[in-house]
Amino acid sequence: MPLPYKPGSHGPEIEYWQAWFRREYRAYAPPEDGYYGKDEVAAVKEMQRRLGLSQSGEFDATTASRVGYVPPAPGLRPIMFTVEGHSSNMFAGPVADTAAQLEAEGLCHHQPIGYNNGPIPFDNASGVNELARLIGSEVMDNLVPFPKGTPWALGGFSQGGIVICDFYFDYLAPGKPLEWRTPDLEGVLAYGNPGRQADSIADWARSWITQAGSHGLDPIRRFGLPGFPAKPDFWVDVYREGDIFAENTDDKSSEVKAAVYQAVARSDFFSNPFSVAAQIAILFGQPVEEVLAIVTAIVSGVAFLGDQPNPHYSPYDISGGVAWMRDRLRS
What we know:
The chain is 37% helix and 8% strand.
């Protein structure tokens, strides 16, 4: 759409411009509804008044040049970034398959995140750093444009869930370095997520779950814990009953599962109370029933990383997630 934007202009490019306006001139930005109407005219007149320009109310090339606005490239589409799990192929899995399907429908570009997903303990930082590098850029390595204001989406599975949670906490949350990207984040789809907030479950997956009150396995860096934000509304979690990465409680057995997780996923063997060392230190002070529960939990937790099929690794029905993300990208 060529400049000027004026009354009657509408569509994705106006939404893009409105998002840019809100980010750069929040104090008097018009609403983001994809339509250039009286609110836009008033906002642009105010901008032009402050710049000492003729107050036409049309966002023309002269106004754009003075404020550094660059229109989006023709055919600009959202980008969906996906982070798959431990030892996974970054091009395959529940979130990669979702993005690939939506890319084939012309709704997004798929940008898989390659990271060091082989080691134990996990190297989550390599995924977080790669997300930060790409999402902080205005063009992808494959030359797909990603200017400010471009809608985007995010998906993570298993270890990828850890990566996207850490990325949100450290880069996208209020006051963090890439907070300016958050207003354009259309949706986050997390499968088997250790950072799952208590009772967070996508509407289409509720029938898969019978146990209420559970949460992700991460005992320290998890949505809703002290020092961490509540899960944002644009984030949905999908898991199946028995998935110990995504479904944990607060009893003794669950504490030990969290300790195994801290060792494997966070390289944390010693901090209290969520560490293998702490649990071993108190082991012999527990009743026999508790000792058996702890041993069972340790065996379950270690076997869980490798045994397939199981509720965490078995192929997902991704149709609900595809439909949800499709609606988000079209909105």
